[in-house]
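User: Before I run my own analysis I want an independent prediction to cross-check against. Here's the chain; please return only the structure tokens and, at the end, one sentence I can use as a sanity check.
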Amino acid sequence: MPDGRAPCSTRPCLLLAVFFSLDCGHQSQGDSAYPASSSVIEALQVETDPEICTITRFQWTVLYDGDDSAISSQVRYWNTFSEERTVQATKTETSDEGPVFTATLLGLAAGYTYDYEIVAQMDGQTIGTVQDQVSTCTSPSDFVQISVEDLASDSWKDGFLLSSFSNEPLIVFILDRGGHYVWWATEEDEEDNMAATTTLFSHDGSSVLYGLYRYSFASLRDEENTKHAKIVRRSLDGLSLEEYDAPHMHHDFTELPDGTLAWIAYDFRDYEGTMYFADQILERAVDGTISCVWSAWDTIEFGKYPYSVATGWTHANAMEYDADEDAYYLSLHTYNAIIKISRSSGEILWMLGDGSDDFILESDSVFHYQHGFVVLNGGESILLFDNGEVEDPLDPDDAPEDSGQASEFPESRALELSLDSNLKTATTAWEYYSDPPRFSFAFGDVLRFDSGNTLVNFGSAGQIDEVTMEGELVWRLNSYVGGPFAYFSFAEDLYNPAPTD
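Assistant: Structure tokens:
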């Protein structure tokens, strides 16, 4: 078909299996020392994953009856809207016929047809090829619809965006540049109050990590209910699944370079005969040991702001880890502030916002009810999502009725602050507002590319913009009704993500 769309339109397409016994384009070796009659590709099997029908697995045999140590193989694949990718195959065994290779294709868009070519080589010289097409099934019909406006040639060329929709169904997903679903995981939520607000590419590049926790107001009042949060690790190839208990987790977590998992957790304590909760940072070491590295109860005075039975009195909602300084950065929603915490001592090193004299903010640098942020330039600047000031951001009556902008609500923005620890100032280095304006009642996130362009995630407004440092919009993604974006991550390549989040 001209547009590359697959004829398969129903789910699941569980298995596309073809078995070949072919002379697959064998080429004469001329003066080569290698035998010219013993290398072909045979017994090709192609199957799609039963749960994620965009994951496609290949297995084949290269016929060769001698020493196969010099034989290698790869798969090239492409279609009309994606760049050509090449996957090096893995030699899994040597059969009586010759070496057996496997490869998994990732990043295929749901509902499209791709051309592929399998190449067998000896010492880098092609000895056989197979060419054909493979089709993926469409994504489930209840997934949120996505639209993309690609407005300039200097938007992100290739890569993948990882995020989640915490509605029904609860979906963790990866999109390509065209807004196509290329990977997903769905979670059953019988009580309709489960959230998966944070999604990460793992440090080793093999998996997606996401956290699951209950967010109903009733559960927040009950210490027992909040114990049952967890972090899920799903491999990108769809073959493995692990789950880790993350007691009292909410909003955000991160993975440290050594595999330690750290998360924001509720911290329930008795204060003058009444049970209240604030926030803490818990860590799970690789051996499963869980420990507390910081608590608001130990470092922040209780009672500055009114206590909420829904969110406690600090409402931490986003975190980052700096390996060079072994420090955490933590967003405190209620305080309109971001704090820096020593991981080793649990001491608050400084506070940005909330009238703190650690950094003096000019009027245009003041932010309200912020969510996602990233630390840039070795800690010399912070890029954050400033949701904007409303009378009570946690009151549903103060939220807009749709994902657009109502005149009585503020405009959310991306804000970059330059920090000067000597002068104790934080000044606006860059900002971006959507046109038309957008207000995000919840969520919101930011990401800076090496090119200097910025991805701005307008959270509950269901919009993601890529803009230049000059404020030019070069790419925009919108979800339809029912698709508020949670926090996001980005990877240029699903085979070696080198995550940016």
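Sanity check: The first strand starts at residue 41 and ends at 48.
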